Amino acid sequence: MRENNPLRIKIVSDACADWPDLPSHTLARKIYREHRQLFQTYNTAVCAVRYRRGNLGKRSREKNSMPELIRPNGISGSITWQFPKSCVRPYLPFILDTKRTLILSDIHIPFHDEAALTAAIEFGRSRNPDCILLNGDIVDFFNLSRFDKDPTETSLRNELDTTRQFLGWLRQEFPNARIIFKLGNHDERMGIYVRQKAPELWGVQSLMLPHLITAKMDGQTEVGGIEWIDDQRKITAGKLTIWHGHEVGKGSIAPPVNPARGLFMRTLSCGIMGHLHKGSGHEETTSDGKLVACWSTGCLCGLWPTYARVNKWTHGAAWLELSGTDFSVTPIRILNGKVL
Predict the structure, then answer these.
(1) Which domains does the chain have, with CATH numbers?
(2) How far does Cα 161 stand from its chain's mean position?
(3) d(Cα 46, Cα 265) in Å, to the nearest integer?
(4) I need a labelling partner for 220 at 20 to 30 A (CA). Which of 10, 119, 236, 283 fits?
(5) Which residue blocks in the chain are alpha helix, DSSP H?
(6) Model pTM?
(7) Residue 314: which of 283, 291, 339 has the closest Cα?
(8) What confidence tens digit (pLDDT) does each residue in 180-231 have?
């Protein structure tokens, strides 16, 4: 068989290139169904596919003008098994290499405690930070919660506007510092809501959190220079790992337990986390003489929300200094709006 119709040559060649592993009869059936006007019979389409693949004898292989489409002869309908590709995505840490970092966790805008947040920021300002790490749950997303709530207490618009105002103010006050925004479980509520309620809109950048709280709108300028960490990525600063806290799971980290000890039991490495709104510390020496230390920062939001009138929360933040891979953590304990 020698094909002379340019259109049929293109259709068959494109199909063979697009579906190299499809059996010839299956591919011919697809071509015949979609281009019936070009092929007299189904067998005509089969022959065209086999010719293009070099499966109509030695002559079809020698005369084929597209050798890249030729494939070895095999048993009709046979399948060559291949090792499957994995859909696992790499889980790579975010590397933090700044020397002086102020770590602020669990602000929960617009339910932030103004005095506690101001005290933590002023502590950092006095030490001239070159990085401010917003370590999760910066926005509360109260109305997007799956829990029962009073919808009149705040609005999504208010939360977004207030967060944008805070980020703009922070950039204004620290123009030369890196500002890194790591998504905590509350910050993730926006994306979860879109995926569950309107999956067709997932991926539209104007609906993503980074755009919603930094873009220019309503006469406000754009908030620039914000770095984003999503996908529950851990942060490594030398020998220290920084978590928001929800990434490590509930398991051994529960409110009745010392959160820092829970983090130690979960990770068996030096680390710091927020998430549980309680400041704590824990350290142990290993059998080979290495010191493993963990901390949890307090929160910077109101201490008595309607859903947790009785709790063990404390206000706090943390100061991190890094020299090579060595680090020094200073817990910032705050009581009644003042650093202790």
Answers:
(1) 6-69 (no CATH), 94-339 (3.60.21.50)
(2) 23
(3) 64
(4) 119
(5) 6-18, 24-34, 42-52, 58-62, 114-126, 156-173, 189-197, 209-212, 259-267
(6) 0.76
(7) 339
(8) 999 999 999 999 999 999 989 888 888 889 888 888 776 677 888 999 999 9
